[in-house]
Amino acid sequence: MRYRDLFRSEQGLETLAPLLREEIAAWIERKESRWAGLEGQEFRDLEVHGTAYSPFDTVGINRVIAQEGLVYGAGYGMYLKPTFFLGRALSVTEREGHIVSITGP
Hints:
Structural class: alpha+beta
Oligomer: single chain
Number of strands: 5
Mean pLDDT: 90
Largest sheet: 3 strands, antiparallel
Distance between the termini: 14 Å
Strand content: 25-35%
Low-confidence stretches: none
Shape: globular
Radius of gyration: 17 Å
């Protein structure tokens, strides 16, 4: 998600809502300054309903949160950057032995 879209999402703004350049610039600076403190740190387990899971244990985490209508995903994206998401499940099906989840707001 691009920064402007993420900003709108976090602020609860409409997709085409106008943005003040100074406001979004300060928000981006705060976001990016947090990354420096995270670089080099090891991944930590996620605690879900009192049980610790590796952040890459999508099967285990999804087994627990499915009853809440949620889907969790983790993996490595472009340039092997770790990627994680949590979304509301719109549909979950199995195709050719793979779980296919469609998420939404």
